[in-house]
Design a protein that fits this description.
EC number: 2.7.13.3
Strand order of the largest sheet: 3-4-2-1-5
GO molecular function, one term: ATP binding
Keywords: ATP-binding, Kinase, Nucleotide-binding, Phosphoprotein, Transferase
Helix content: 10-25%
Structural class: alpha+beta
Enzyme class: transferase
Organism: Microvirga alba
Length: 98
């Protein structure tokens, strides 16, 4: 069974905050990179990146898929609209492992 390891960090100050998120799957079958990108990969890498105003990369490692997201947060953007809570933002780093 695959279990994700999710790590995120807030970088910068209030005028130039950036969210860095890394989703890494592990514990599943060996991963083989696709020969072509399908709808889901394009949706993640293009549409999500555009929606967040950042970058999204998907890497196919033999041990599992890794998705890395870098998104800029707007100055004055409320924490609840920035995908994180105020309490978590004060910690600056959050890690979740299933």
């Amino acid at each position: 069974m695959t279990s994700p390891d999710i790590v995120w960090r807030l970088k910068g100050d209030a005028d130039g905050r950036r969210l860095s998120l890394r989703w890494a799957e592990r514990g599943g079958p060996q991963v083989v990179p696709p020969q072509r990108k399908g709808f889901g990969s394009r949706l993640l890498e293009r549409a999500l990146a555009q929606e967040l105003g950042g970058e999204v990369r998907v890497v196919y490692e033999p041990t599992g898929v890794i998705c890395m997201i870098e998104a800029f947060l707007l100055a004055g953007q409320r924490q609840d609209t920035a995908l994180i809570s105020k309490e978590s933002a004060n910690r600056g780093t959050q890690r979740h492992t299933s």
